[in-house]
Design brief:
CATH architecture of the largest domain: 3-Layer(aba) Sandwich
Largest sheet: 7 strands, mixed
Number of strands: 14
Order of helices and strands: HEHHHEEEEHHEEEEEEHEEE
CATH class of the largest domain: Alpha Beta
Distance between the termini: 47 Å
Structural class: alpha+beta
Shape: globular
CATH topology of the largest domain: Trna Endonuclease, Chain: A, domain 1
């Protein structure tokens, strides 16, 4: 499993498994991680950014999986190791595909060049698939790229976590008359995703608007121009684990 050797040494160096995770998360810094892994030769075994990238349950090193742990950033260069469920399932939608007629009255030649997540997301927006899925014709692109969170706190189980100045990135964000829609996009089949990728941007933009903030997960099907969209909501904005699926759909766009 990825980075398991490095994390075994980190856990040994700081006696992490002796910590009572039912009482509190275990704080760890980038400096501590770097110090513990300084003698490893390969970049992937000592680079903090790589070691802390655990975007799916399967990406977690063995020690995390064995003991039911996951990792969250809380500020620049600082993390916490938490016992609990850190990931949300992305359920399969099924084989049926709805044919969606583009709202454009011409074809987009440039949208067919390449295969990036951003390109497919832009195509879905340009044809008004995103607006139609949300039943909101007022949505316009206003958010893209990396930003830093304000200070906020939330619960994981019975534990309180405080976050400040963590870098987030949304693949696209749209604002309409009554809502803000944030999208996390992937270009291949994803079985589960760390909730942080949806929750941190949700809390970040919730602090800047009184409009309803909606989170979508967007995926382009491998080998075909079909798009799957899942809408999630957080039923309790201060609870990391309150994520719930609202609706989903799978679409093939028909150009005019």
């Amino acid at each position: 499993m990825a980075n398991s050797r490095s994390w075994e040494k980190i856990f040994d160096d700081y006696s992490i498994l002796e910590h009572d995770f039912d009482e509190s998360p275990f704080p760890i810094s980038a400096a501590q991680i770097k110090r513990a892994c300084q003698d490893f030769r390969q970049t992937g075994e000592k680079e903090v950014r790589i070691l802390c990238k655990q975007d799916s349950r399967e990406d977690r090193p063995e020690v995390f999986q064995k003991h039911g742990l996951f990792l969250l950033p809380i500020k620049n260069g600082h993390y916490v190791i938490i016992r609990g469920e850190g990931y949300a399932d992305i359920p399969q939608i099924g084989e049926d595909v709805d044919v969606y007629s583009s709202k454009l009255n011409f074809q987009l030649d440039t949208a067919k060049v390449g295969d990036s997540e951003m390109q497919h997301l832009d195509y879905a927006y340009a044809t008004s698939l995103i607006r139609s899925f949300m039943d909101d014709p007022t949505l316009v692109l206003t958010i893209r790229g990396r930003k830093y969170t304000p200070r906020f706190d939330f619960r994981v189980g019975g534990q309180l976590i405080e976050v400040s100045g963590v870098q987030t990135e949304v693949d696209a964000g749209y604002e309409g008359e009554k809502r803000v829609v944030l999208i996390e996009a992937k270009s291949s089949r994803t079985a589960n995703v760390i909730i942080r990728q949806l929750y941190y941007p949700f809390r970040q933009w919730q602090a800047h608007t009184e409009k309803k903030v909606v989170t979508l997960f967007f995926e382009k099907s491998h080998g075909e121009r079909a798009y799957s969209i899942w809408q999630f909501e957080f039923t309790d904005g201060s609870d990391y684990n309150s994520i719930a699926l609202v609706k989903s759909g799978r679409f093939r766009i028909l150009d005019k």
